[in-house]
Amino acid sequence: MLVAPHLKTEQTASASSPATQTSWRFGDLSAAELLPKLKRHLYGQNPNANWQLVWLNNDGRPVIGLLPKMSWSVYYLSDSKLPNQQPNIYKVIKNCRDGSHSQAKTNQAIISTYMSYSDWQEDLIAYSQAHNADNTDDNNSFSTKDVDKQSSYHHGLIGFIGYDIAAYELSPAAKIQLAAQPCASLGHYDIYLTPNAEQMSWQLTIKDSVTDTDNEQKGVLVKALISYLDIMDKELSNQTLEKSALEMSYKTTPLLLKAQWSKRDYQQAFDKTQSYLQQGDCYQINLTQQWQGAFNQSPNDNVTPMLMDYLPALHRNTHAPFAGYLAVNDFTSEISVNTPDNQFELLSCSPELFFTFNKEDNTGKHHIRTKPIKGTMPRGLNTEQDNAYKQQLIDSEKDRAENVMIVDLLRNDLGKYAKIGSVKVPQLFAIESFSNVHHMVSTITAELKTDTHPLAVLFGSLPAGSITGTPKKRAVEIISELEGAARGAYCGTLGYMNFDGSGQWNVLIRTLQANTLSNHKLGKKERHVSLWAGGGITIASNCDAEYQECLDKVGNLLGVLTQDNSDK
Q1: What are the tens digits of pLDDT across the range 17-39?
Q2: pTM beyond 0.85, yes or no
Q3: 352 is catalytic
């Protein structure tokens, strides 16, 4: 492998899977601060490379994926566009970083295939198993006997699976609407950045495996990448340039998102929800509403506004443990696929864990943990009020009832994949506090059956019960009818799955989406941004309280977005 000769390299324990690691301080930036600067810098250095940057906060163990070896982007096809009129078939665009299939300018092969959701799942499992077999020695250094150990990314798939596709697959006959954007996207990130053990610098890791066919091309890319990171590190370490460089990275103008429902609209949807509950269709239904807006760009401003530019301020405000950012190139668009302003962006400030998968050393057993959130109260203006709100949540019989419904739903979901007798609930109704709200959180654990791949558990358990309701299938049907708009990625999941089956996935709540859409009235394309919020509705729910809960959940995010620091 080609590396810059002046940089120190290290090898992992595995001779078959060496990893080249170099480190930079990058002006001591946090991950959320680094990402916007990094993305603009890399595109500026080489706009033709397949930069698909992804960041996961991963509960304080961040990872930044840079240049995937392989990526899968999934798009919904209307019936008229389906090959041979086959139902439930998706267009899956594989982007391969493979020198043997390289194109003249992009050095990548873009392959379109058509497959079902289950076939895509099997394709991912087969790919993961093949790479896990190649990296057995490497995996042993990351597995653990402690099933409660915090999970970290070391080599595998990173990406998201949206709510729409999972809900549609759960109830195909309901014809659930899917948003005009990628339904899901996963990438094999063998080139990534992580903080070193002392959290003082960022280390670049490059994984190899015996199945690599793009070593020569990859070596060229890595050598170039290291030079790009060298340049950025020097710029950020130069005291005379640091201030202006950081300001350019975080320069934002106010982004106003308007509620798509009035209070009256919400009341009508709430009343219909209550009707379904009273008829016995469901015990709980998660009703959500959307805020929407678009970026305003000055004709004299040559910097395209991007959702990622709001990431530093949003993360400083929320400190969300399962926050993340992902951008997906739109390979279906007529305009250039390599322009950042044409990418689908996903920015999550999620406090909610969906699944943590851990692999036990020696035995190879996989353990799973999930922590559903159900029950919310706002933070107080002072300590006394804050404690009163917290106690009110602790004492709420309604919230306890909602929480235990979802716990039972998830116990049933995991029961399909878990070893008999292994599903446990070690903690019920714990209170966790975040920047804007208190949440009631429970914990469920299980040991997976030996013949069950963790990806099958992930796919088979989507969408998460905490953002659908119970029973899940009927809940997603009612949600589709009442909300009247596709959720897109919102309420799906974002995370990673290492090839050894360890991994961590969030629930995509407190999440923004940005997409480039055509404005036919104005005759131009606009970048639209959406944000959603909602809550679980039961027969005991009060409309005013539930509506206020929506505002409590997104109020701080909306406040950050409307701040103007364009002149700072």
Answers
A1: 344 458 999 988 999 999 999 99
A2: yes
A3: yes
